[in-house]
Specification:
This protein has six helices and five strands, in the order αβαααββββαα. It is of the alpha+beta class and 183 residues long. Among the domains are: 87 residues, Nuclear Transport Factor 2, Chain: A (Roll), CATH 3.10.450; 38 residues. A five-stranded antiparallel β-sheet has the order 1-2-3-4-5, with helices on one face. Helix 5 packs antiparallel against helix 6.
Length: 183
């Protein structure tokens, strides 16, 4: 009861205040944007089962009939209509919902970029940017090589390469030992 009294004594009534402020003249407003780059928005969406072009654009808040028409009809945008469930799509729009750019990885891993240029849409295919990383892990083989690689989280393809390397090394050691003993 004592805790309740101390908490209720902390109650401060909420007061509303309203103040009008003047914005500088060079501040862009949502309704008066003259430069489309001044207010652009990137939105990401995942393709869901049963998605249509229209539904995916709606979730990304794209309100652009010409973009919708291009994506639904143009042969260059065919990969967009064939995207697998779970793929991500990024859309750049301006404040009024017009599509400026659309970017996604197609089902083959290529990056597709659809951009509005001079009022029309242009599709370009860019090869994926791959990078090589050096990864080093250590582990102890106490039962089998594959159990050890599973325990340290190596991918199966790397474990197979490691097995091939160990076969080559062991074959070389056996061959060397035979040649040394016979001489």
């Amino acid at each position: 009861m004592e805790l309740y009294r101390s908490l209720t004594s902390l109650y401060i009534p909420l007061q509303w205040s309203r103040e009008e402020i003047v914005l500088p003249h060079d501040t862009p407003t949502v309704t008066g944007i003259t430069n489309s780059k001044a207010a652009t928005y990137w939105r990401n969406e995942r393709v869901q089962r049963g998605d249509t072009v229209t539904e995916l654009l709606r979730r990304m808040q794209v309100d652009d009939p010409s973009a919708s028409e291009y994506l639904r009809r143009d042969q260059a945008a065919a990969s967009f209509r064939q995207l697998a469930t779970g793929k991500f799509v990024q859309a750049e729009t301006n404040a009024d919902g017009s599509l400026l750019a659309l970017r996604y990885l197609d089902n083959n891993g290529s990056q597709i970029l659809i951009e509005r240029r001079a009022g029309d849409f242009k599709t370009s295919i860019q090869p994926p940017l791959l990078e090589q990383r050096l990864l080093m892990r250590t582990g102890e083989i106490s039962s089998t090589l594959f159990a050890a690689t599973d325990a340290i989280g190596l991918p199966e393809s790397t474990a197979n390469q490691l097995a091939e390397i160990l076969v080559v090394i062991s074959t070389s050691i056996v061959t060397y030992a035979k040649e040394t003993n016979s001489a």
